[in-house]
Amino acid sequence: MTGSSQPGSEQRSATLRGNILTPQGWISGILHFDGRINAIDGMPVDPEDNSDPYILPGFIDLHVHGGGGKDIMDGGDAVDVIAAIHAQHGTTSMLATTMTSPLSDLEQALEACGHACRTRRAGTARVLGVHLEGPYINPGKLGAQPDFAHAATLQEVARLSVLAPIKLITVAPEMEGHLEVVRMLSESGMRVQIGHTLGSYEDGVQALQHGASGFTHLFNAMTGFQARAPGMVGAALAHARYSELIPDLLHVHSGAIKAALRAIPRLYCVTDSTAATGMPDGDYMLGRQHVHKCMGGVRLADGTLAGSTLTMDQALRNLVGLGLDLADASHRVSTYAADHLGLPERGRLVHGCHADLVVLDRQLNLTAVYVEGEQIGHREV
C-alpha cells in the first residue's frame, strides 16, 4: 500500500486491499484512491470467511466540543488541535460544537472555526462547519451548559453565520417564538435539532412539523418518556427519522440504546467529546464550566455528566458489543450523519467520493486513517 500527500498538494494514487464496505455490501478486493475514490475492484464476500482487514468509510462526528486539552470555545488554533486528536481515532470529518455563552465568546469561537472550515491543516479531520448547541435552549434544562441561554432571533443567527458555516443548531422549541425560528432556519437549509428542552411530546411533534430534523443527544437534557406523558423522548421514538445519541454507555443505558435503534431508522452516533478526550484524569474547561475527568467520565462538581471522552472508534466497538453487525454500526458512525447533513460525497465508499477511509483489524482496532486521501498517523497496512 502506498501513502498519500499533504492536503492541497497533488496526491499520489494509492491502494488498499481488504474487506471493503460499499453501499451494496461487502466486497473483497482493492480500493484505488487519491484525494477521492477512483475505483473499487473485487467480488462480493462475507467478511467472516477470511481474515483480511475491514475498510470502512471514515467516521463523521456532528457533536465535538473538544479534545487534547482544548475546547472549541478557546478560539485560536484550538479547533485544529481538536480535529487532529479526533482524526487519530478515525474521525475524518466533524462539526465544531459550541457551548451556551455570551455572544462575544461565540463570535471568537466561530471566527476560528470559520478559518478551519476554509483550510484543513495536515493531519486533521475536515471541519465541515459548526454545531451551535445553545444559546437557544431552555434555561431550565441546561445540563452542563453555562447559564447564558436566551431566545433565538434570526438576526443573531445570521450574524454568527457570517463567521462560520452553521450546519446544525440545537433549539428548545417550547420557548416563545422558537417554532417560527425553527421553520425559517429549516427552510434556509440549516439542520435544526431539538435539545436541552423541557418541552412536551406535543411540542416535539410541532417542532418536527415545522422542519426540525432530529434530536440532540437523545435521552439527555430532555423530558423523559412516561406512559401518560411521553415527553420529548416519546416524540423522538414515535416520529424521528434522525437523532444523535452518545453511545459511551454512561449517558444512555444499553437497553435505552436498543430501544432507540428499533424506533429511529437513522439513529446516528456522536461523541459529545470534551477537552478531556485523549487526556489523563484531571480538571478541564468546557466552555466557561470547570469539569473533572475520572473513571471514564466527565462531570461538573455536582456530578452532572458534562460531555464525554468518547472517540468514534470506541463508539463503533460499543455498538458492535451491543449486538449490531459491523455494517450497521458503520452506518451509524458515518453514513447516516452524512445523510443528515446532505453530504452525498462523504460517509460511503463509492467512486468519486472523498477518500475518507478507516482500516480496522479483526478486533476492530484502527490500523490506518485517511482524510481526503491523506494518511493520518497510523502504520501502513
Automatic annotation (TrEMBL):
Keywords on record? Carbohydrate metabolism, Hydrolase, Metal-binding
GO molecular function ontology, one term from the record: metal ion binding
Entry note: cofactor: Binds 1 divalent metal cation per subunit.
Give residues annotated as binding Zn(2+). E133, H196, H217
Q: Establish whether keyword Metal-binding is in the entry.
A: yes
Give the annotated active site.
D272
Enzyme class, first EC level, given as a word = hydrolase
Q: Which Pfam families match?
A: Amidohydro_1
Tell me where in this chain the Amidohydrolase-related domain is found. 54-374
Residues annotated to bind substrate: A144, N220, A221, R228, H251, L305, A306, G307
What is the protein name stated in its UniProt record?
Answer: N-acetylglucosamine-6-phosphate deacetylase
Q: Which organism is it from?
A: Collimonas arenae
